[in-house]
């Protein structure tokens, strides 16, 4: 059929580099003229490409070529792969047009300031908006303690290298922990201790021993919607961790990068239990909004102010003024709150579909985290399967999953864990994708059984 030939031609042009990620496709009218067909044919072709995640639509703007991970495309055509690897925000729900308006407003508002260097701590007017926004997350602080950073990863990287007021040098991190934190810790001269973060929570007795005897500078944790497991600490566990930190003179870095997506008002951040300044609160806008925005924040005690600003100035002088201004407008006019409401609905719906598919298709002996964040969950493979070999096999079957060995310290390393994210997977592909995973696990187990039988014979 004609629409299928149009799809094939456009995919080939993308593969050949003639149409690159971010390029705008011809409008419906222009496409009909170019291909000599009806508008309905072009609409059907574009719809097919959108379902395959090869293009995305920006309302009132047009169709654009989507970005894809090279590791997926190199093995099979990207149009055939259900990609549970990429964990950026759902492109179909991104506020491109709204944020374009905010960028234009920021240019007008700060047109003179763009020709000078900005305050290294961030735009004061943005700090005011962020303080108001944080109140909805039960983080009550003054604007003067908020530091705008170029993505929360910058804050983490700087904090790892800074001397802390407690004069200690060692660090405790949850296990597993996202790969960005592992990279920030690489080559760190102090000791780095791990503590397992499992379905039942953390061993708080073990954490107390580390705090008491380990000369701990800070403890790093994602308190809710953890990467990669999707777990969240209970309020009781959060309170206890804060009490231990206060007792043993330890700081806590609470990474609340997806706190906006947590619609459960019963859960409070650790920061809410700590009037002493012992908890450093960090969050990002990348996972819930636009990764290219590269803005985050840190709420810091006064004792870290000078060292942090000095380190940040050495890293980038100040975070981009224009994007700061655009985020200020976006928060100020209520667009962010409306966007987050939509995102919560989308991710919750996807998470329910994923959990249902896990129960239906994963074989006996396979475990999985029961997270409803819509971003991350993990699958524990039955022995003796290994994550990397399983991921390679599943990719050949048309499903991309992420081995998480790189998210462990060496002594905690696990070889049988996969991470999945449904943040960018079309809802209709979640169940068939998990079915492929379940069938793949069964097939690999069958192959291992046959090999053992042959060796025995």
TrEMBL record:
Single GO molecular function: DNA binding
Domain of life: Bacteria
Transcription found in the keyword field: yes
InterPro entries listed in its UniProt record: Aminotransferase_I/II_large, HTH_trans_reg/aminotransferase, PyrdxlP-dep_Trfase, PyrdxlP-dep_Trfase_major, Tscrpt_reg_HTH_GntR, WH-like_DNA-bd_sf, WH_DNA-bd_sf
Gene3D superfamilies hit by this protein: Type I PLP-dependent aspartate aminotransferase-like (Major domain), Winged helix-like DNA-binding domain superfamily/Winged helix DNA-binding domain
This protein's UniProt keywords: Aminotransferase, DNA-binding, Pyridoxal phosphate, Transcription, Transcription regulation, Transferase
Domain HTH gntR-type: 1-68
A Pfam family of this chain: Aminotran_1_2
Family: In the C-terminal section; belongs to the class-I pyridoxal-phosphate-dependent aminotransferase family.
Name of the featured protein: GntR family transcriptional regulator
